[in-house]
Amino acid sequence: MRDVARAAGVSVSTASRVLSGSAHPVSEAARSRVTAAAAALGFEPNRLARALATARSRTIGVVVHDVSDPYFADIIRGLEDVAGPRDHALFVTSSDRDAAKELSLVRAFVAHRVDAIVLVASGLTTPGYLDDLTGILKRFKDLGGVVVAMSEHAYPAPRVGFDNAGSSAMITRHLIDLGHRRIGHLAGPPELAVSASREDGYRRALAEAGLEAGPDLVECGWFGMEEGASATARLMDRAAPTAIVAANDLMAFGALRHLLDQGVSIPDQVSVAGFDDIEFAAYASVPLTTVRIPLTQFGRLGAELVFELLAGGSPDPWPSVTPELVIRGSSGRAPT
Amino acid sequence: MRDVARAAGVSVSTASRVLSGSAHPVSEAARSRVTAAAAALGFEPNRLARALATARSRTIGVVVHDVSDPYFADIIRGLEDVAGPRDHALFVTSSDRDAAKELSLVRAFVAHRVDAIVLVASGLTTPGYLDDLTGILKRFKDLGGVVVAMSEHAYPAPRVGFDNAGSSAMITRHLIDLGHRRIGHLAGPPELAVSASREDGYRRALAEAGLEAGPDLVECGWFGMEEGASATARLMDRAAPTAIVAANDLMAFGALRHLLDQGVSIPDQVSVAGFDDIEFAAYASVPLTTVRIPLTQFGRLGAELVFELLAGGSPDPWPSVTPELVIRGSSGRAPT
DNA sequence: CTGTTAGCGCCTTCAG
DNA sequence: CTGAAGGCGCTAACAG
Predict the structure, then answer these.
(1) Of B176-190, B208-222, B226-240, which range is least confident?
(2) Highest-confidence range of A111-115, A209-213, B311-315, by mean pLDDT?
(3) What is the mean pLDDT of residues A103-126?
(4) What nucleotides of chain C have any atom within 7 angstroms of a protein Cβ?
(5) Number of domains present in the structure of chain B
(6) Domain that holds residue A184
(7) Fewest CB within 10 A of the end CB: N or C in chain B?
(8) Residues A169 and A290 occupy one common structural domain
(9) Is there a single domain that holds both residue B105 and residue B28?
(10) Which of B43, B92, B106, B297 to mutate to test the interface with A (most CBs of A within 10 A)?
(11) pLDDT at residue A198 is higher than 90
């Protein structure tokens, strides 16, 4: 920047003022000479230095469980869509639902002095995790950092969300309305807060219909397609439900594939429902009945919340997104 | 850090030396006191300051076309898997195949003084793009930055890749071997280098078999499912091929969905093949015959190349990954 | 409106 | 082995 200032025949301060878009008045003459010099030299201000001086890095750290899971990938897209135009860059990392890994990622974000940390990965129930996280984030906030949650999380932070339990109940009711009485559930990983919420919704809907969710009707898995397939195999062997509510679309895809491979006809013999409505849902082996969460918009709301907080606001209530039932070919009347 | 030094009863220099893992000798006594003090205070070194002092930010910028495209999401996962353990954070951004946007993203990366820029987004043929990119990256390299390409790119950079044309030819041959004679191609966006390569492979295979790829057999699209479906509609109307080679899996999913919706039986009436073998391929409406690119491993190789270059190495030859034909249910013998 | 002066927090010669 | 001093590139009072 010294070079730019020299080339423009002004002091570094003046150069800095025009280059940083400061509100401080600068004559038009000086301004244009600086701009020209910067362009001629291909000058690119060093943001590290700027961040050090201003205590604002224009950087946001995002923690997801797995970038390659479409659920998270879509949310990241939304975050990026609003952060980018505001000239903020995103650090993206996958925690693999591992407490130790997640904590070290968050610590790294703090070290990088990100302006905000977005926890889109659902909270873990691992012992000690919450305390450690709280400790790290306390220091982060003391440094002026902002924290936003985008999932069920025991850590108290401004949050953009949607009603997991309610949505799960909604789709379960859809199956009940179709006449199903034995409805199984493919639950998510037990250490995730979100798994519990979705399972609760499923149970609540059953209870309200006077049905019982015996323990043999719930099978825990992992949020993946293969795991969904194997969990379905166990569930069918044990309880032979006529309908299955999966805790996410990926598991539902696995269920569809497994049932089809077994020669089960869908939805004539068994109905299957998912959760999230990722784009593939409409292209699955059988078009999937599911709950649509507008993921990209959800991500955008998350970033908008970040910027509001960064600007000193404190939105009340926190934003949220409305899930919606999407009925496709994988659900139908219960077999008679 | 001053606080840590004070608490440990040493100078900042000494504290810095132990906290930064410097090779400079420090007595065991001092070392342990510093470590203890840092832990007690929950000290997290400011990497911005460190980066400013060392000219190494431990940060890598990644440009993809779209994070929410599984092809890129999987690659990012691989990059992350090796960058994370080496304590480097990833900036991830989507260019949307827009030259102006991509250039501004790259500019932001140099402003953030990333140590390396990974171009996993395929090169654009937009006029002026290459020159502008070259200018920016030249300055970046003068600053000590490293550039790695992970796709067909006119910009000359160390590259980890795979044989796009060859793989495309391979899968086309598979269809020819099944007796197909009228084979259509769903090409990618014409402004992408990778689209041309994959189309070339398709054409080469046809030519070698003495078949002709009339212009009506190739339909350009966009690398998405919906676009794949509409391109398929146009292609079927116009040329009614008995087999379709899509430039990526997403387009193939769209093709499957469209054909199925039209009551076309797959593969009895029409065979469909994809490219990439994203995880969903096995769970699509019809399990997809495709070319497997080990995407996560590919991503890992990209990051490893980055670190080799950062360490001053100049690997020769550049690493690459071997595609493999995966035959599933979407391809079968040509109808007689 | 412009320039001078201090740092931001850390690393790194350079003397001790 | 330890500490003092200077600087990485930029911003932000503070005088002019």
Answers:
(1) B208-222
(2) A111-115
(3) 95
(4) 1-5, 7-13
(5) 3
(6) 164-294
(7) C
(8) yes
(9) no
(10) B92
(11) yes
